[in-house]
């Protein structure tokens, strides 16, 4: 018969092994759904659709802004930043795209990027804004 301390330790190890089998670890390029049973790609978080099936990827007041995005090699992602509310200007949205190597690749390729500006309050009614090409890419966000 094993001493009580060893029995408890063996029981704890078995419980941990069973939990690892039940819990699903998401990749860095995925968002964990509530309960940890499934994962969705990061671009599915806060996209307006319930991709998890339980609504956990669409919490109230969620935003695609101010996040770091990782991707997987060979997969294309679509990210849409919704227009800001007029009572919440100025609108800042920091997006960080990271290629961390291995499954996430070594480079990030951005295929399409549009920025709109609203130069005056008179343009608020029904105007979609104008594309602006000047994007400060030389200064990193700190």
UniProtKB/TrEMBL annotation:
Gene3D superfamilies membership: Low-density Lipoprotein Receptor (4.10.400.10)
PROSITE patterns: LDLRA_1, LDLRA_2
Pfam families: Ldl_recept_a
Keyword Transport applies: no
GO cellular component labels: plasma membrane
Cleaved signal peptide residues: none
Record protein name field: Uncharacterized protein
Protein keywords: Disulfide bond
């Amino acid at each position: 018969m094993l001493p009580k301390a060893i029995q408890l330790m063996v029981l704890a190890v078995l419980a941990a092994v069973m939990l690892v089998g039940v819990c699903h670890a998401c990749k860095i390029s995925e968002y964990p759904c509530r309960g940890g049973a499934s994962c969705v790609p990061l671009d599915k978080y806060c996209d307006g659709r319930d991709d998890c099936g339980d609504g956990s990827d669409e919490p109230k007041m969620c935003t695609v802004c101010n996040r770091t995005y990782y991707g997987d090699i060979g997969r294309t992602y679509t990210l849409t930043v919704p227009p800001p509310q007029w009572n919440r200007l100025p609108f800042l949205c920091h997006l960080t795209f990271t290629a961390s190597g291995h499954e996430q690749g070594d480079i990030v390729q951005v295929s399409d990027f549009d920025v709109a500006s609203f130069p005056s309050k008179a343009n608020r009614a029904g105007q979609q804004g104008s594309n602006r090409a000047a994007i400060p890419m030389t200064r990193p966000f700190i």
